[in-house]
Amino acid sequence: MQKTAFASDNTSGICPEALESFIAANTSNVASYGNDEWTRRACDAIRDLFQTDCDVFFVFNGTAANSLALASLVQSYHSIVCHKLSHVETDECGGPEFFSNGTKLLLAEGEDGKLDVDGIARLVAARTDIHYPKPRAVTITQSTEVGTVYALEEVKAIGAACREMGLAFHMDGARFANAVAHLGVSPAELTWKAGVDVLSFGGTKMGMPVGEAVVFFNHQLAQDFAYRCKQAGQLASKMRFLAAPWVGMLQNNAWLTRAGHANAMATRLSDALAALPGVSLMFPTQANAVFVNLPAHVAQALKDKGWAFYSFIGAGGARFVCSWSTTLEDVDALVADVKSGL
Amino acid sequence: MQKTAFASDNTSGICPEALESFIAANTSNVASYGNDEWTRRACDAIRDLFQTDCDVFFVFNGTAANSLALASLVQSYHSIVCHKLSHVETDECGGPEFFSNGTKLLLAEGEDGKLDVDGIARLVAARTDIHYPKPRAVTITQSTEVGTVYALEEVKAIGAACREMGLAFHMDGARFANAVAHLGVSPAELTWKAGVDVLSFGGTKMGMPVGEAVVFFNHQLAQDFAYRCKQAGQLASKMRFLAAPWVGMLQNNAWLTRAGHANAMATRLSDALAALPGVSLMFPTQANAVFVNLPAHVAQALKDKGWAFYSFIGAGGARFVCSWSTTLEDVDALVADVKSGL
Amino acid sequence: MQKTAFASDNTSGICPEALESFIAANTSNVASYGNDEWTRRACDAIRDLFQTDCDVFFVFNGTAANSLALASLVQSYHSIVCHKLSHVETDECGGPEFFSNGTKLLLAEGEDGKLDVDGIARLVAARTDIHYPKPRAVTITQSTEVGTVYALEEVKAIGAACREMGLAFHMDGARFANAVAHLGVSPAELTWKAGVDVLSFGGTKMGMPVGEAVVFFNHQLAQDFAYRCKQAGQLASKMRFLAAPWVGMLQNNAWLTRAGHANAMATRLSDALAALPGVSLMFPTQANAVFVNLPAHVAQALKDKGWAFYSFIGAGGARFVCSWSTTLEDVDALVADVKSGL
Amino acid sequence: MQKTAFASDNTSGICPEALESFIAANTSNVASYGNDEWTRRACDAIRDLFQTDCDVFFVFNGTAANSLALASLVQSYHSIVCHKLSHVETDECGGPEFFSNGTKLLLAEGEDGKLDVDGIARLVAARTDIHYPKPRAVTITQSTEVGTVYALEEVKAIGAACREMGLAFHMDGARFANAVAHLGVSPAELTWKAGVDVLSFGGTKMGMPVGEAVVFFNHQLAQDFAYRCKQAGQLASKMRFLAAPWVGMLQNNAWLTRAGHANAMATRLSDALAALPGVSLMFPTQANAVFVNLPAHVAQALKDKGWAFYSFIGAGGARFVCSWSTTLEDVDALVADVKSGL
Questions:
Q1: What does the pLDDT look like over B18-36, one tens digit per residue?
Q2: Is residue D330 part of a domain?
Q3: HSE (CB half, 13 Å, CA atoms) of C296?
Q4: Are residues B177 and B73 in the same domain?
Q5: Residue B210 has what pLDDT?
C-alpha cells in the first residue's frame, strides 16, 4: 500500500503516456531551445485542444507559470485580485511579487475557495488613489486549492466583469484537467470563450515529470514573453523533454481520462468518508481532492499508521489528494484505516 | 549522420546512465519537493565527489543556477566582475541582472576567454565612489565559452585575489565536467580548495534531460537559499526526476568518462581541422568545443550540406561542440566535408 | 480660517526654525552629495539627540525612508510583520515590496493600530515551510496611523520579542516627534535602548519642506546603505538643503516644542469633540491626530463648509490632523462648525 | 574666491528666482501630493514652454527622473542604448537597472560623448535572438557629460531612427537648459518635434534646491506614471516646494538666461585655457563644462591651491563646470592659477 498516495498529486510518478513520448524524444541530436519537432507538435496539440491560435510556452513549474503569466499582465505598482486561499498567495513564497517586482496581491474572501464578481468589485472599488496599487488583473484557480470547481457560468461572469473593469484575467490551471473532467465542457469554452486571457496549464500534477504550459489567448499580452522566460531561467535548452510528454498526454485524450480517474477516486473516497459518523466534508468534492474534518484521534491514528496528508485550517482538517496513479486499493485502505480509527 | 551533432552540447539527448536512474525513480508515490530518497542520494553523491559537507540545491537550468547563485552573493547596488565573453553576459538575456534586481556586470577583457587577476583588480580599482556599483563578486566559467580551461593555478590565483579584495567567488560550471576531465585534478582541488564559494554544476550538457546543481562550499552564503529557489520558480515538485540522473551519472565516474569522451572528440576534430590549409584555431582546444577560422566559402559549403553550427566573432569563425553522444563518424564526416569544401 | 488645516500634517508649510537654516545654507558653492558642513552638523545633531554613534542618511520622503530601511533588513523571499493599518501597507503603493523586490508584508491585527507580541508571534509561527516567505523583520509606526502611541514598555516588549525570534526591528517614525512629545521619554530610550535597529525619522511632517532621516543603530545593517540610497534615486546632490533644516529643528529642542504644540492642539480638539453629543472617539488621542465618529450629516455639513479631512473606516469616521502650524483659532473654528452641524 | 566653484554645477546654491517662489509658496496649509496651485502653475508653465499638452511629473533628483522615465519604456528583458560616457551608465550606481528590474544598458561609442544613428543601429542589429535583451529604447544626454551639445539635426536623426527601429526615445536633460541656451532653438523643436518621447528636465543644476521634471510628450507612455512615482518614493507630500521653483525659473525666461550665463562663463574659461601652452581641449566647449588636458604638475598645483575639480579619463584630464552662480572673478582666478602653475 502506498501511504504517501494522498499527500499530494505531485507525489505521483510519470504517467505511461507521458513517459512513452519522453523516451521516444530521446533520439540523437535535436535542435535546442524549442526549435524542434516535439515542441512544434506539442504547441500544435495545445492549439488544437483549445481550437484557437494561442501562443504556447513551456516552463518548468507552476510557480514559474503563474508568476511569469501574471507579471506579463501588470507593472510593479499594480495589484492582482486573488482568493485568500489561492496557491499564488499561500504556496509560492512570494513568487508573483518577485517576478513582478513588487505587485501586491489583493486577497478576496469567497465561498468554497472561489472568487466571485462581488468580491472582486469590492476590492477594485476599495481604493482608487495613487497611494495604493491599482488593480490590473484577476487570477482564479481552476480547480481550486480546496478541491472545488468554478462552474462555466461563474468563469464567464468573472470574465465579463474583468472586461468591464479593465482587468486582465488569468487562470491558474495547475489542475485544469481535473476541472475539465468534472465539468465536461470544452477547454475552449472554459477559457478564452469565457474571457480568460492567459492560462497556466498544469502538466506535472497531470502526470508529467516536470513542466507546465503558459497559454496566451491574447497575442498582445504574449509579446516578448519568450524573452521573459529566457531571462527568468525558464527556457529549457533540451526543450523536447518538456514538450514531448504533452504530445503523449494530449493524444487520444489521455490527459482527460487520467484526470477523470483521479476525480473518480476522490469522489469514491469522499463518499465513503462522508458516510462515516463524526467525519464531515469541509468543501464539496468536485475535482481530485477531498477535504474532511476528522476527529483529532482519527487524524492521529492515520499518522501513526504512516499515512501522509496535509492538515488544513485548524486541527481536524485533513486533505487527501488523488492522482492518475491512485488505485481503488489505496482508497479503500485509507477508508478502512479511518473507520478503524473512529 | 547527425548534421546537428556539433551545434551545441545541449542538442544531445539523455545519457544512458542518467536515463536509467531517471526511469528507476519512476516508482509509485514519493515525497515531493526534495524530501525523497533520490534527492538525498544525489546530494550525498555530490558531497562525496567534492569531499566536503557542501550545501546542494537542484534547479532547472543554467541561467537559473548562475543567476540565483550570483544573487545570493550581492545586493542590487553591487557589481559582479565577469569576462566579456562569459555566458552570464552574452547568453542569459539579463538573467543575473533580473534575479539580483539590477546588479551590474563589469566586463573584463582577458586572453582565451579567461579572467585574470590583473583584469579583476583593474575593474575593482576603477571606481570606488558611491555613484557606481560596488564590486562584490567574481564569476568565472570553467570550462570557458571559447573552449578553454582555467589551469588550477589560475583558479587559485583568482581565489586568493577575491579573498584579498573581499569578493565572493562563483564558478559557472555548465561544463565543469569537461574542465575536470581536461585537467585531471579533483573537483575539490578545482573549487573550494582554490577559493570558490559557490559552483553552478552543469547537468544538462553532461547528458541529463534537465537540471543543474548549485553547490555552496560556504554555508553562510547558502542561508535561506531554499526559499530563494522556491520563490524564483526553481523548486521542482517531483524533485526525484531532477535528482535521480545525478545519482546515475556520479556512479562509477560516468560523468567524467562521458566528459572525457566529449573532450577527446573535440581534440580529434581540432587536430584534424587545424592541419588543413586555410583553417586555423581561434582558441586552444582544451575542453569539448572547437573554434576555428574557416574560409567563408567553406563555412557556406558546410551550411549548404546541412551542418548546423554557430558563427562566432566575425564572418569566418565557427564553433563546433562535442558531447557525450558525438561519434567518431560524426567527427570524420565533418572533417571530410570541410576538406571537400576547401 | 484655514479649511485645509486638518487634512494632514503635510499640508503645513515650513517651520520657521527649518526655514531659517535652509536659507542660511544657501551660500555660495558647497560640496555636493553630503560632503558638506551642514550635513555633518545635521548628522552630529542626530547622533547627539540619540546619544549614540548611529549611522544617519537623509532621503527625500517617508516612502523612501521606510522602503529603503526595510529593504536593508530582508531579502525578497522574506516577510515583514506590520499592522494592517500601517502606512507601509496602506499608503505607500507597494513601495516596500518594490524596493525589496517582492518581500511580502504580513498583516497583524492589534488594538489601537498597534502591533503586540502575541500578534507578531502568531504570524511568525503560522508558516515555517519554504513555500511561504520567512519572517525577518517587524515594523511599527510610532506614533501610529490612528493617532495612538506605543508606550515605552510596549516598544521594549516588541524589541525583546524580535531579538528572541531573530527578527530585525524597524520603527516608522514619520511622526516620531509627536510620540516623543507625548511620552516624555528620551529618543534613545524609545529606540535603540528598546531594541530598535533602524528608525525612519520624519522631517516633513515635523515642519521641513522635504526630507527624512534614516537612522541605523546597528552599524552592520547600515553597510553599503549609501550605495542603496544612491541607486534608489535618494541621494540629494545639493544635500545641504535636506540637512540644514535638521540643524535648525534640533537646535533648542524646536522639534519637540513644535510637536508638543501639534499634540496639544489635537488634545484640545479631541476633548472638545468628544464632549459633543453623538460624537465619539474612534481611538484615544495620544499624538497629533484625532479620529472621531461623526454623524453623517455633520460630516457632510463640514464638507459643505469647505473643511478638508479624510474619511476613515466607514461612513462616519473622520480624521483631523494637527501640525506645528495649527492654531487655537483653527481648532475652535472646526469645533464650532461641528457643533453647528449637529 | 570660491575654490569649489568649478567642481560641479550642483555645488551651486539656489538661484534667486527659484528661491523667491520657494519662499512665496510657504504660506499656510496647502493641499499635498501635487493637488495645489503651485504644482498646477508649474505644470502649465512647462506645457507652455514646450507648446504642447505634455504630462509633467516632479521627482526629487536626476537619477530618479532618468530611471523612472526609462523604466516606463521597457521591461526587464529589454535593453536601452546609451553612450558609454552617459550619466545613466557611469554615475547612477545602477539606478536604471534597479528601477527596471534588470534592463541592460547597451554601451555605444560615439564622438564627443554623443550617440549617432550608426552606433545605435549597430547595437540593435548585433543580437536579435532571445538569449540577449531586446533593444527597446535609446537615451541621449543633452547637453552631454563631456560638455558637448547635440545639434538639432542630430537629435532629429536619432528620433527618426528610433521610430524606424521601434525604439522609444528618452532625453536626459539634466542640463537641458544649457543645451537650449547653446543652440538657440525652441524646447519644442529640440524634443517632441524631433521625436523625443520623454524628457528628464533638470531643475537642480539649473538653480533649484531639489527637483527635476519628467515630461512625457507621449501620453500613452505616461499611463499610471503617477503610481510609479509614488511607489518609487518620488512623490513629494509638500509638492509645492518642488513645484514653486519651476514657476519662478520659467517666468521671464530666467531658466534660459541663467543657463546662458553658465555657458558664457564656460566659453570664457575654455577660450582662456585653450590659449595656454601645454593645455588642450578634450572636447569642444558647447555648454557649461570645460574639459582640458592639463600638464600633471599644473593639475597638482591647482589642487594644492585648493581648487576642487574632477579628473577625467586619465591623469591629465580635468573637468571644470560653470553654473548660474559662476562669476567672472571665479573664471579669471582659475585661469590665473593655471597660468602661474605652468
A1: 999 999 999 989 999 999 9
A2: yes
A3: 2
A4: yes
A5: 97
Q: What length does chain A have? A: 342
What three-state secondary structure class fits A171? strand
Shared-domain flag, residues A200 and A336: no
Paired sense of beta strands B78-83 and A317-321, if any:
unpaired
Q: What cell numbers appear for B52 in the block?
A: 566536503
Closest CA to B113 of B168, B172, B169: B172
Could you tell me if B136 lies within 8 Å of chain D, comparing CB atoms? no
B201 CB-near residues (< 8 Å, 6+ apart): B46, B65, B173, B176, B212, B213, B214, B215
Residues in chain B where the model's pLDDT stays below 70:
1, 313-316
Three cell numbers at D224? 499610471
Compute φ and ψ for B18, nearest 5 degrees: -70, -40
| Percent of chain D's residues with pLDDT above 90 | 95
Residue that has been written with the C-alpha cell 568545443 in this structure: B289
Return the amino acid letter for B209: P
Q: Give the CA radius of gyration of chain A.
A: 20
Closest among B146, B134, B133, B83 to B110, alpha carbons compared: B83
Cell of B310: 554557430
A64 in contact with B at a CB cutoff of 8 Å? yes
Q: Is the torsion defined by CA of D245, D251, D256, D258 positive or negative?
A: negative
State CA C267 to chain mean position distance.
19
Cα-based distances in Å from C324 to B220, C182, C273, D27: 49, 14, 20, 13
**Residue at which a domain ends, from D235, D253, D271:** D253
A4 pLDDT tier (thresholds 50, 70, 90): confident
Is C77 close to B231, i.e. CB distance below 8 A? Answer: yes
D204–C237: do the CB atoms touch at under 8 Å? Answer: yes
Yes or no, beta carbons of C29 and D10 under 8 Å apart: no
Minimum CA–CA partner of C96 in chain D: D231
Which chains, if any, share at least 3 CB pairs under 8 A with chain C?
A, B, D
Q: How many CB atoms lie within 10 A of CB B305?
A: 14
How far, in Å, CA of B278 to CA of B299, rounded? 12
Identify which of C230, A22, B91 has the alpha carbon closest to the alpha carbon of residue B105. Answer: B91
Q: How far C249 CA sits from the closest chain B CA (Å)? A: 28
Cβ contact, residue pair C77, B101, below 8 Å: no
Task: List, edge to edge, every strand of the sheet that includes C289-293.
Answer: C280-281, C289-293, C317-321, C310-311
Q: Does residue D261 share a domain with residue D247?
A: no
Chains that touch A (3 or more CB pairs under 8 A): B, C, D
* Residue ranges making up the domain that contains C296: 255-341
**CATH at D235:** 3.40.640.10
Do B103 and B226 fall within a single domain? yes
Q: Are residues D202 and D270 in the same domain?
A: no
What's the CATH number where B303 sits?
3.90.1150.10
- Of the CA atoms within 13 Å of residue C154, those in its CB half-sphere come to 22
